[in-house]
Amino acid sequence: MAAKKEEVNNVGNDALMNEYLELVHSGEDYFNRLASLIAAAKTEIHIQTYIFENDSTGIKIADLLKAAASRNVKIHILLDGYGSSSFSNKFIKEFTACGISIRFFSPFLSTNNFYIGRRLHHKIVVADSHISLIGGINIGDRYHGSEKEKAWLDYAVEIESTEIAVHLQHLCTAIYYKKKRKGRKKNNYLLRSVQPAAVRILQNDWVKRKNNISKSYIQAIRKSEEEVIIVGSYFLPGRKFTRVLKTASQRGVKIKLILSGISDLPLIKRATGFLYTSLLQYNIELYEWNQSVLHGKVAVVDKKLTTIGSFNLNHLSSYGSIELNADIEAAGFSENLTLHLYNIIEQCEHITLKTIEERKGMFTDLLNWMSYRFLRVVLIIATYLPKKRFYRRKKKNSFFFPFTNR
Prior knowledge:
38% of the residues lie in helices and 24% in strands. With 406 residues, it is of the alpha+beta class. It folds into two domains: 6-176, Endonuclease Chain A (Endonuclease, Chain A), CATH 3.30.870; 188-359, 2-Layer Sandwich (Endonuclease, Chain A), CATH 3.30.870.
């Protein structure tokens, strides 16, 4: 489905007129835009992402970044120390030689890394303080796709807005240089606008008392009147969020969940499967995407509000990782995304109680239950320890913890 530009018109600021936001799909769409953005950059690029693979897609983006650096474009790259642990040392040396600034967030084996489960999970690109890409798409072949393998299903949004880009650039700079916040400032940013669009940038970093994405999700569903569609990779919500979904469904709101039929983390898929019967009993519609790995993190409420970004509906995103989403209040944008998601639903397997009965094996229910209980405990531990240690302000050595969002 072709993406459609949605203009963003600011009140009282002529310099921001005729700006736009546009839905971006994983695959060629995202990486063509990323390549064009880097190639056209004139002054400065900020990239912060969880995964930067050493594969054909990663090499192409790396070459474009080196070419931009040769044009004297200032480039700052922040990668997660665990997610990008396989990032090529060759890239690092070449980037440094070109004058590209690169750093790893909480690198494994660092004596300062004591935040177990706290990862840099957002995916942000900002160019020339004017154009931004925000979403859930990492840099690698699996997100780009190939002739042999379909790209993982995921989304981003491209925003042309100096005001938003400058805000995101300040955010990226603060994280890159480990700047501490001053005072008790609000943790979100609202681009107030006339019709048809308003964009709010939200963060989750519970260790730093930022919990805006979680709150926004819950508030939006509580206020919903007609329909909520959620694309949920690694879907393992807490009890509070599950209750909110069930309560909305009881009010007559149609709840549609698009979940993973194919997952790169089978344990999570089993744990999610444990929730199916309970959700179906509340008339929540379940659909599994089986054409590729589902990696999207998107929700549309009443065809009016869209949230899109890196935030997964699980304990790790809510209480561990550093996440970033864009909330978009734009009827046109949300209606177009809803139509796209209807098309995705038509290609999914509809999960019903009958489906669950047909899938049952000798140990299916037991394995799903064990997976759910195990992951709940592991995620609680992984997110409790960072909070405990943060408030005590004591630095301790980290140890390897294998489960993360992607």
